[in-house]
Amino acid sequence: MSLILKKYPAVYGYIKFGRYEPKEGIDICCLVNVGKGKELANTTIKNCEIKKLKEIHMELNASAGLLKQRKNKRI
C-alpha cells in the first residue's frame, strides 16, 4: 500500500489552513488492544515506503509489545 501511495502522492496528505498539502513519507497507524478489549492505543510506523514488509512487521510487533507493557515513550 505504501508503494502505491508513493506512486500517487496526491492521495496522501492533509489539509492545512484550507489547502491540501502532500505528505512526505508514508506512515501507517494501527490501533493496539492494550487492555481487556476496550482499551486501545495508537502506534505509528513511519516511512513505510522504504521498508520491507518484514521490517514493518518487526517494528509493529515491537511497538505493540511496548504499548501492552506500558513501556512506550510518550511524544
Description:
Helices cover 31% and strands 27% of the residues. It is globular. The protein contains two helices and four strands, in the order H-E-E-E-E-H. The protein is of the alpha+beta class and 75 residues long.
Give the spatial strand order of the biggest sheet: 1-2
Q: Summarize the amount of helix as a percent range.
A: 25-40%
Oligomer: single chain
What is the global morphology? globular
Q: Please tell me the total number of domains.
A: 1
Largest sheet: 2 strands, antiparallel
Low-pLDDT stretches? none
Q: What would you call the structural class? A: alpha+beta
Order of helices and strands: HEEEEH
The number of distinct β-strands equals 4
Number of helices: 2
Share of β-strand residues: 25-35%
Radius of gyration: 15 Å
Average pLDDT confidence is 85
Give the N-to-C terminal Cα separation: 26 Å
In short:
The chain is an alpha+beta fold and 75 residues long. It is built from 2 helices and 4 strands.
